[in-house]
Amino acid sequence: MNHPFMDIPIPPSPDFTWDASRAIAIEECGEPMVPASLVPEKILVRPQYYLHMLEGAIPECYVRRSVLERLIEAADMLPKGCRFVLLDTWRSRHIQTTLFQKFRSELREKMPLLDDSEITILASQYVAPPSLHPQRPSPHITGGAVDLTIVDATGICLPMGTEFDETSEKSATAWYEKKIEAKENVSEDETEAMHNRRLLYYVMHKAGFSNYPDEWWHYDYGNQNWALLRGKKHAVYGVTEPAFRWRSV
Predict the structure, then answer these.
(1) Fewest C-beta in 10 Å: which of 61, 97, 239, 243?
(2) Handedness of CA 53, 42, 163, 157 (dihedral sign)
């Protein structure tokens, strides 16, 4: 597969801290949430936490209306036959807390010598710490964060070098770019993954999203992460939820 974006290196990761992100003011625009599964010719929905049967997860990916519009715009830049696969979008506070604790437990098993504060800091690289503060929300609870990958015309996900949600340094978006810069050997499989990450990065960036640099799959629009990384004065998305008439989350 060839695409011009595959030949453009991903730029060095911008400076990012959760403190800096959460210091950004939010001026909520009130934009509604919409389901993303109604345009399957461009976007497939596979909500991973629902499929993994996490309590409280839902079988739909909800996003803000402008996020969906920009996802469609980005999908139109993909090679012919390719589509996005949404793995996770809006999360309730309950799911955010559950995920954070699960990541802490996973890291505790892998790194038993680390103390609780070190485990929490490391877990925060992969899951935003849960927050009840309306001016310090987790990105996914705003409806402006999307976790996604790309599938080809045969229904196979393009290799990205790691699995979704993998807690390793290889998950960093520019991991392979850094290997090349350090003059380290990059295998054929790694080169393919690097090209696919570039494709995802640039179609999303061109559509107005920002990328969370520790995760190749995570992109933001309208929330505090986006405002920090795209140099905006304030975020336009705060805490929200879909309009569930009969269900509370």
Answers:
(1) 243
(2) positive
Distance, CA of 108 to CA of 72 (rounded, Å): 39
Contacting residues for 169 by C-beta, under 8 A, at least 6 apart: 175
Would you state the structure tokens that stand for residue 4, as one six-digit string?
A: 């011009």
**Separation of alpha carbons 73 and 37, rounded Å:** 15
pLDDT digits (tens, 9 = 90+) for 146-157: 999 999 999 999
Q: What is the pLDDT of residues 27-70, one digit of tens each?
A: 999 999 999 999 999 999 999 999 999 888 999 999 999 999 99
Rounded to two decimals, what is the model's pTM?
0.91
Region for residue 190 given its phi and psi (left: phi exceeds 0; alpha: psi -120 to 50; beta: otherwise): alpha
Joined together, the tokens standing for residue 203 give: 């179609």
Distance CA 198, CA 5 (A): 6
Sign of the CA dihedral running 171, 189, 176, 209: negative
